[in-house]
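[User] Once you have settled down, look closely at the record that follows, and write a paragraph about the fold.
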Amino acid sequence: MLTAHRVADIRAAEAALAANLPEGELMRLAAQGLADKLAEIPAGELVLCLIGPGNNGGDALYAAAHLLDRGVRIDLCLLDENSVHADGLAVALAAGAQIVGEPTGQRVCVDAMYGIGGRPGLTGKAAEWARWISANRPTTIAVDVPSGVDVDAATLPPCYVEADSTVTFGTFKNALLVWPASNAAGRTGAEPADVVDIGLRPHLDAPSLEALEAGKHVYVEKPMTHTIREAHQVVAKAAETGLRVQTGVQAMSDDSYSSAWDAIKGGALGPIVHAQTDYVRWYPADQGLWRTGEPAEQSQPEDLDWAMWQKHNPKQVPYDPRIYFDWRCYKDYSGGISTDLFIHRLTRIIKACNLACPVRAVGMGGIFMWPDGRTLPDNFELILEYPAQAGVTPGMTVHVLGTMANKHGIEHCIRGHKATLLFTDDGWRIVEQESGAEVLTHKKTGAEDIDLHHKNLQAAIRENVALNTPPELGMYGVVACTMANISYFEKAMVAYDAKRGKVKKA
């Protein structure tokens, strides 16, 4: 899960870090990181940099010099010539930047007017430039935060910059995670912003992998994490420490899925091309999915530390019994049907087919049955595309259907060119495509035995046996289900860049 920090804490961390660095090194790190995040801007492109006072503008000016060295052309608009970062301006001009009076027809814009020290709302020339961005829609990258937003309160004043993406330094800020200000930050893949590591972490609160960092083996409820970034962190930390992490996905200590993979890799299905599964339920029309029926006026329980309960949600909203009892209905606290239900069925398919991360995903659905204030869909389905595996699949798709208004589902099966594997209550059977004959069956052991799943973790710790749901498998499920959610909210197909761990529109 993502963690944000307030301006005062960030300033204190920056001061502590700078005290142990050569003068100007912190800005050098920020500028280099910013330039690296802008590496996809092609040579020859004309980029407009809106430069404000102080260090935010300085970061952009030094980054501009790096871009100029790569063949990018730079126009500079100075908010105030008397307060611009003088050394940064000198470096940018020496590298070939040009000062222009006003924005014109530039297609790419870097917003470096105000950083975390800026006051909410833009006036004067800054407001004019923000209106130019709104009217002309250049691709706009905000430096640290979009200018004009209220950084700590995460509110949107009358005038601010609406960015397409944000490159921030050291850690997330409230305005990058919390609605409505987060709307102005754009989105970089699966994250609200690209974070440049400048070494602040040791001077800020500890990251959210406390158990592993404390030297503990972990049994974690599904989904393993709430973000793709944190999933990668868990996998890396488990590998670093040698500690065991078991994800509590239903039925993963059932041998149906490992034995299915044995049959598939042995050629029983021929090249596999498709799999399907579902998660369907029926709820009364007057109740709705995940509604507990607790009274809306219920007061906060005396033993509930509401701030701790919301620890990783920077909104820190006042106590709300609907959120507390029905948290699965709200996107700030849950991934809904995709991450809380589909992940059970999908992880089984991933294991049975030896899949990793999908290359593309589509998630669709809506709030069709219960428009009761929830922010997550009550009907949902996803389609995933996976790459080729030598000798196993030339590429395949996986479909997961979900509705909470009707309990009649679809067959859970894996389709190959030669035969189909159908999962049954007892295990699975394989039916030959051409003849329709049943050619192979398997009677399962384990089923949804939670105790067996716990014992598997214990055996992994004591006897070094393989985990049934290791962190890598947990991560694959998180990536797939999160991609589907991003697709749903972005209303577009998304793709996964495995090298960068990023999701983007396909």
